[in-house]
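User: Structure please.
Assistant: Input sequence and predicted structure:
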Amino acid sequence: MARADQTEIRMRIVIENPLSGVLHSLQSKDGHPLDPKSSNSGEALAFDFPVRIVPGPKFFGDQVRREGPVRRFVYIRIGQSAGQHGSPWSRRMKIDIHDLDQGLLDRAAAGEGVVQIVVDGTAQDGTPACATVARAGVRLA
């Protein structure tokens, strides 16, 4: 699909309750860490990035990964995967975006705000959350 047919929107992933001192980053299209940051005392981390969309919805962009014909998601790298070589963790969070509400995406495309996805950064066992994580909330910010 030609880029001219795609509309760019802004997305933000907010990681609430991340483990203090553990590096998190977006994953770039070449698989490397992008925009690494860590929490000093458990404060939330936010990652902003552009995504191109077409009705359906279908998603395109440097941070968008695909699995099969429909599933689209964004990776957050954690610990060693994010470039923190001394970390005891080397993980990734998979955050689904393919099932976001079309109405919300349309509002973002109209310039009404940023699509904000909130996830919990700590797993039930007290370690950094990883694998496919449930969204704690999705809204226009």
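DSSP finds one helix and eleven strands in the chain.
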